[in-house]
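Handover notes (outgoing to incoming on-call)

Open items:
1. Hydrogenase expression/formation protein HypE: sequence verified, structure written out, both below. Nothing else pending on this one.
2. Nothing else urgent.
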Amino acid sequence: MGEHPDFDGWVCPAPLRDTPTIVMGHGGGGAMSGELIEQLFLPAYGGAARADLGDSAVLAVPGLREGARLAFSTDSFVVRPMFFPGGSIGDLAVNGTVNDLAMSGATPLYLSTAYILSEGTALADIGRVATAVGKAAESAGVQLVTGDTKVVDSGSGDGVYVNTAGIGIVPAGVEIGPTRAEVGDVVLVSGDIGVHGIAVMSCREGLEFGTRIESDTAALHGLVADLLGTGVDVRVLRDPTRGGVSATLNEIARASGVGIELVERDLPIPPEVKDACGLLGLDPLQVANEGKLLAVVPADGAEQVLEAMRRHPLGSGAARIGRCVAEHPRMVVARTGLGGTRVVDLPIGEQLPRIC
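Hydrogenase expression/formation protein HypE structure tokens:
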């Protein structure tokens, strides 16, 4: 790549050469995020970077029990406001990294916590965030083993930003990854979608939707353990955070080369989320979730996995929402109630910035 990026090679849909400075869409988990990673960061890193880009890296480490591997993940949280219905940046930071580890089939064990604090932030607010971090870690059964704190000038930050990194162990025989989806597989979701993003937006903008919408933030490793306990070959697990279900399924389709077909009437979108998205002009499939997972499993094991999901408190609303098909490879489409289909595309930028 050389000392400076080669902008001439960068391409649509949102070429970075046309946006030479960072914009909010670069952090949205969609096409602009992917372009930033693939055409700036990876070339800059050169041979030091791994090619796979999962939510966590699964690494063979000498000394582990035969067949077991180390899972390692890191994530940063900049949600605004720090406190929102159903949660805060504190429990979000713990649950987010725990879930990234869980989506590789790992049992989360240890977390680091790093805080970037803005000068002038009330100590009482920082205390509330730290307390939420501690309670969420205890609930998830992980230890907080190292950390760091930095303070930036007033106006340089926004209250509290939190980075968490996590380590877990993937048991022998567990192989989960976005490239493993196959034609004929079934797509499952563990419950209602779009809840977290709308909860944060309602709080941020002071919107009223006739009912209180609370974030679904939760640690999902217990649910994952139940799914793996069925003995079914769970091929892919992902938590649809930034970019929502749309971005996550597009990433799976592109990584595995299959087409994915959803059935719109089977999507578990709560009425209040539908109403809010209609009011705000948003697509519920692109709204972030923080306590839901998508699973791609063989058709002959789908009912068994679905039953295991529904027996767990965090999967009681689980549903079958689609399947992997040979048609339209590397694309996601939704079958509408009128019998037609529409393309469910990868979001370009960010519908709702700063929601995780």
